[in-house]
Structures are given as C-alpha cells and as structure tokens.
Amino acid sequence: MPRLFTRRTFFNTTALAGSAFAVPNLLLKGQNAAGKRLRLAQIGANGKGLSDTSYVTLEHDIVAMVDVDQKRLDEAAKKREKYHVDANQAPPRPPKLYTDFRKMFDEMANDIDGVMIATPDHTHFLAAMWAIKHGKHVCVQKPMCNTIWEVRELHKAAKEAKVITQMGNQGRTMEGQRLAKEWIEQGRIGTLKEIRLHTNRPIWPQGPIDKVQAPTPEGLDWDLWLSSTPMEPYFELPKDKQTKRASSVHPFAWRGWWAWGSGALGDMGCHIMDATFSILGQVIPTKIEVESGPISDLCAPNWTKLKYHMPASEKQPAMIVSWHDGQIDGKPNKPEKHEMIKDDTWAKATSGMQFIGTDGLVFEGDAYCKSPRIYPDEAYTQARMDLGSGKHKKTEARSPTPDNPQLEWAHCIVNGGLPSSNFDYSAALTEFVLLGNLAVRSQQAISWDKDAMKVTNVESANQFVKRPSYRPGWGV
C-alpha cells in the first residue's frame, strides 16, 4: 500500500528531505546534452496522456505509466510500443505500470527525472504537487488546475523547487501566435480595440444533469479516480443526456462537472485565450460580465457569453475581450462576425478569434492561432511579402519544437532555457480563464482583486476560488 501523507507530514517530510526531494536532477549520469535521454513518467496514461507520451517517447524513456483504469493503462502501454514499431524503432523497454501515482513515487522517485500529467482536471494539482515535492520537472495538461488557489499554490511550489515546468497548450509553441502578436504590435491593423473569441465546446453533456447510479466499470478504481474529492457512488448520465461518446463521467464526460472539470472554458480557454493573453501583455481582467444557459451546483451550463474587462498594458489599451461557447436553440453561440470575414470562412470556424483594430483585423478560425491572417487582403499580402524579404521584425522568441509542448519541455530540461508555457506564464493564463467560471458560477458580474485573490463585489463567489475540501491521504 502507498504511504498516505497528511498535509503536514507530506509537506514537512519533503521539506526536511532537502536535496533528496526538492532539488531537480538537471545533470543526468554525466551525459552530454546531445545524447541525454530523460526518464519520464506519464500520469493519466490513455487518451490525451497517450498523445502526450507519443510526442516524447522516441527521444526519451517512458519508465512509468499511471492510470486508474487498468484496461486503459494496459492499452496505453501497448499503443506506445506500437508507436515505436511504426517509427521503425526497436520496441522500447516496457514501463512500470501503476494505478496510483503515490505508489509510483514511493517506488520510483529516484528513477524519474520528469512527470507528464494528463488526468482529469481535479487531479492536476495533486499529481503535479506530488512530483514537485519530489524534485521532478512537470508538464501538466491544460488547464493547469481547476481552481485559482491551486494554480497559485502549484506555481509557488514549482518556483521554490526550481523545476522546469510546462502547461500543454500547443498554440503557445506555434509560429502563428507569434506572428499575430508581431503584426498587431507593429501596427498592421492600426490600434487594437476589441477581441472576440468563441468555441463550439462543450461537445459533452452539460447543464443541469441528474446522476444515475451504475456499476463501476471493470478495471476502474473509482476511489483513485475521485482522488481528493468526496467519495460517492459511480454514476452514468440519464439516457436523454447520453451521447455516443459520453454516457458516463469516465473517461470523457467529466469535463462539465465543477468538481472534476472546468467546463468549456477549462477545456478550450487555455488554447483560444492564449494569443489574447500574450498580445495584451499578460494582464488579468478586473471585471467579468456573464450570461449563460441554465446552471446547477454540479455542472457548467450549455452556453455562456462573457465580457472580460482588460486593463491597459504597456503595449495595448484597455478593452473588452468577449467569449462565446456552446449552442443556443441548436445554433452555434458565436459572437458578431466582423464584416471583412467571408461568410463561408466564418461558417467553418468552429472555434476562433477576431483581433479587431482601427484599420483591419487579424482572424484565426481554429483554437490554436496556428495560421492567422490579416484583413483586408492587401494588408495580409504585404505582411507575407515582408516576412519573405526579412522586413518583418521577429520580436518574439521561437520555440525549438513547434506544435510540441511536451518535447519543448524535455528540450529545456536537457539544454536549458524556459518552455513557452512555463508556470510563470501559464499560471496567470489559467487564472485569466478560470475567472470566467467564477462569473458563471456566481451568475452575475464580478470584480476581481488579483493581489488579494478575491472577488470584491460578490462575497459568495469567493467560495469557488478554492476547492471546498480534500480527502485525507492526498498530501494537501
């Protein structure tokens, strides 16, 4: 059985252990950087976790995989092996398999350099904090956590431990996001005055939903899946709420539940709001207005409309950033389309961002700002000509591994440098995103004091800043 730490014993034990737990292993067995292979663990092994593993497994060694579902864990290990075979590589040494990440750390802490985490949102904080307190570098899927208090605590712990951190938002590594920022800062659309963002999420059931008690699926350790959240029976969704992909909370429909996910905002906000956050100088909104569909204490709504009031930064004026998600009466809940965007282009944009300036706009019709373009067309043509001729000023540092945040993280561990979405950046981005959920759950406009970490005008909203409680045995 794994050791079960209380908040006091876990944090005090790791602090007293000094270099054995708190100092990251930056120099691995005297290897030169060019040939260094990291020893990595994947927590949350299947689904997105398997995708994350595939980004690094050819260059580094996956020595452990963890998943609370034994069937999915075994499947992930086999698929990872096939990935090597398909790449004409010899099958890798099989990783050790665990259903409890605490046991994995108990047995393998000295054999791991870094940890990737792709669990449901509610376990991000727990797994990442456990890794950090053992001195391990961490790469956490978005959102970094699903409460603002957890985000800040995790950020603080990582800085104290001096580990290399990353959040898995792909767009932050891409060329497109950097071009969009440079175009706007260099005046190609005049003065930026408004930003409109949208997504087709949720693509899983949300809104008021009843729980239908059901047998726990074979192979799933439901107690471990719940981790620090209160124990309750396993359940499915009512028949009228089920979809082909999502009939029960595991492994996909958890995103809409406040206890375990963070709704459409948590799923896509760290992608779609990322370029906005960077372009606006990483400022935090002071006020958020909200409209939404029906909401419950348990689940996020089917659609939302938010207005983030963004203060001025050194490079951009104060402005409104709007966010739309979901569907209303069966139709996509999109913001107003700028007149320069063609109707067929707009219809295809299931997610997107409009950066509206006094002389034009930058538009991207996907979630990652991978291939933005400028309107009017002649401004875009000129921008591409200037990029080709070298007249375009590249003021933003480029990623060594575009479209691969996991490999970028590993690259920085081996070679030095900071990943694009390290916690200094992604903690504030995640807070920006989660503030929208504070407004949604409050069902009224909120004013935010970032220094006090407090909603100043709606006291009841502050109950959502921090998770209500943690079950014993989870080290918090």
What does this protein look like?
With 476 residues, the protein is α/β, with parallel strands linked by helices. It has 2 domains: 7-170 and 406-419, 3-Layer(aba) Sandwich (Rossmann fold); 173-203 and 262-398, Dihydrodipicolinate Reductase, domain 2 (2-Layer Sandwich). The protein is 32% helix and 18% strand. The protein has 15 helices and 18 strands. It has helices at 7-16, 19-22, 48-56, 70-86, 101-108, 124-133, 148-161, 175-185, 222-226, 263-272, 274-279, 343-348, 377-389, 405-415, 423-442; strands at 39-43, 61-66, 96-98, 114-117, 137-141, 165-168, 192-199, 212-213, 235-236, 287-292, 303-310, 319-328, 331-332, 352-357, 361-364, 373-375, 446-449, 454-455. Strands 7, 10, 11, 12, 13, 14, 15, 16, 17 and 18 form a 10-stranded mixed sheet that branches. It is globular, with a radius of gyration of 22 Å. The two termini are 19 Å apart.
Descriptors:
alpha/beta; single chain; disordered N terminus; 476 residues; 6-stranded parallel β-sheet; Dihydrodipicolinate Reductase, domain 2; 10-stranded mixed β-sheet
CATH homologous superfamily identity of the largest domain? NAD(P)-binding Rossmann-like Domain
What is the total tally of β strands? 18
Specify the biggest β-sheet: 10 strands, mixed
How many domains?
Answer: 2
Number of helices: 15
Structural class: alpha/beta
Oligomer: single chain
Shape: globular
- What proportion strand? 15-25%
- The residue ranges in which pLDDT falls below 50 over 5 or more consecutive positions are 1-32
- Provide mean pLDDT, rounded: 92
What is the CA-based Rg, rounded?
Answer: 22 Å
- CATH domain class of the largest domain: Alpha Beta
Distance between the termini: 19 Å
CATH architecture of the largest domain: 3-Layer(aba) Sandwich
CATH topology of the largest domain: Rossmann fold
Helix content estimate? 25-40%
